[in-house]
Design brief:
334 residues, mainly alpha, Rossmann fold, Tyrosyl-Transfer RNA Synthetase, two-stranded parallel ribbon, 7% strand, binds tryptophanyl-5'AMP
Length: 334
């Protein structure tokens, strides 16, 4: 509890271009929840190097991501928006927690298996212990709630298991976090293959809408979106393409899927796809406009980075000191 509010933590990797999946599955929910909680939104650049990165590109993407958080509507005066690598507590807590995490648990992580298959030439130890760093991110700020997409479910469960295990040994050290998943957008699928999630790393750029795509590109991608056989616009397991478009429409406009189905009753797939495209263009417009303004204001962004990493560091060190003491590290002489 900080300032009488519960705490929220979430983060995104500074890799690739952010997609509509990241926005609807996570960022948009952050904006909805931010008034209610004391929030920490991290640009998790330390996670990004589990896969080889071009240093200059990573730095550029990290800054872009931080500006996108703000452009999406998160006020950096009220929310702690910062780079993970600026707070050393993440790495320090991660080491301690790795001594409370079993190999068997990490071996079961499906994201590790997927990424190891994708990067067979670089299956490094960081890729394997990635979920421990993620647990450290969350537990360092004593987060009550963690809004994420469905693909993070297993990591969140492991975080809870580690925290419960630690608390069982040392007493009430960590808050046990709850995951928060959005209603319809917890898993946005590729526009080209609705059996695959929309992903920053998809080789086919037509499968993903990127948050900074211009309106023409967005409309073109929706026009080309794969639909299903038949003509009806219904929300059904055997119509994954249409279902995905309905999920996108409902979460973008804030209506229910049932209302969206009613609205498009009797319309053709072509018209429907255009309407979804327009909803996305309009929904992203304020973010894109604000992003352009922010990218011109270097001094303001630098100031935010400085102030917020100090703020995050302050809260992180409170938890870290407590944990270090519990496990038996000698207390520093001040
Ligand atoms: P990342 O960077 O892959 O994705 C950021 C957020 O976007 C969500 N997401 C999606 N949601 C719906 N549909 C999709 N197609 C889709 N694609 C991505 C993700 O679920 C996520 O919420 N390990 C995390 C980053 C992380 C983190 C944390 C998150 C590191 N530490 C602590 C929360 C708390 C990741 O790689 O997300």
């Amino acid at each position: 509890m900080l300032d009488g509010k519960k705490t929220l933590f979430s983060g995104m990797q500074a890799t690739g271009n952010l997609t509509l999946g990241n926005y609807l599955g996570a960022l948009k929910n952050w904006v909805t929840l931010n008034e209610e909680y004391q929030c920490f939104f991290s640009v998790v650049d330390m996670h990004s190097i589990t896969v080889r990165q071009d240093p200059a590109e990573l730095r550029k993407r990290a800054r872009q991501l931080l500006m996108i958080y703000i452009a999406a509507g998160l006020d950096p005066e009220k929310n702690c928006i910062y780079y993970q690598s600026h707070v050393s507590g993440h790495a320090e807590l991660s080491w301690i927690l790795s001594c409370f995490t079993y190999m068997g648990e990490l071996n079961r992580m499906t994201q590790f298996k997927d990424k190891a298959a994708k990067h067979a030439d670089n299956i490094n130890a960081g890729l394997f212990t990635y979920p421990v760093l993620m647990a450290a991110d969350i537990l360092l700020y004593q987060a009550d709630v963690v809004p994420v997409g469905n693909d993070q479910r297993q990591h969140l469960e492991l975080t809870r298991d580690i925290a419960i295990r630690f608390n069982n040994i040392y007493g009430d050290v960590f808050t046990i976090p709850e995951a928060y998943y959005g209603k319809h957008a917890a898993r946005i699928m590729s526009l080209q293959d609705p059996s695959k999630k929309m992903s920053k790393s998809d080789e086919n750029p037509n499968g993903s809408i990127y948050l900074l795509d211009d309106p023409d590109t967005i409309m073109r991608k929706f026009k080309r979106a794969v639909t299903d056989s038949g003509k009806e616009i219904i929300y059904s397991e055997d119509k994954p393409g249409i279902r995905n478009l309905l999920d996108i429409y409902a979460s973008m406009t804030g209506c229910s899927v049932e209302d969206a189905v009613k609205e498009f009753d009797g319309k053709g797939y072509g018209d429907f796809k255009m309407a979804v495209g327009e909803a996305v263009v309009e929904g992203l417009r304020p973010l894109q406009e604000r992003y352009v303004q922010l990218s011109k204001d270097k001094a303001y962004i630098d100031q935010i980075i400085k102030e917020n990493s100090e703020k995050a560091g302050y809260f992180a060190s409170k938890t870290l000191r407590k944990v270090q003491k519990k496990v038996g590290f000698p207390v520093k002489v001040r």
